[in-house]
Amino acid sequence: MMQDLVIRGIYIAYAIGMLMTFGLILTWVERKQAAVMSDRIGANRAYLRIPFTQIKLVWWGLFHGLADGMKMLLKEDFRPVSYDRVAYALGPWVVFSPVLLVFAVIPFGGTLVPAVLFDGSPAIVEWFGDRSYPMQIASLDAGLLVVFAFSGITVIGSMLAGWSSNNKFSMLGAIRSASQMISYEVVMGLTVIGLILIYGSVDLGSIVEQQSGVLLGFLPAWGIFYQPFAAILFMTAAQAENRRIPFDLPEAESELIAGYFTEYSAMKMGLFMFAEFIEIAIIAALFTTLFLGGYNLPFMSDAGFTLPGGHFIALSHGTVVLTQLLVFLVKVFLLCSFQILVRWSLPRFRYDQLLRFAWKFLLPLALANLVVTVVAVWAIRGAGA
Question: Which candidate, 276, 266, 346, 282, places its Cα nearest to that of 27?
Answer without folding.
Answer: 276
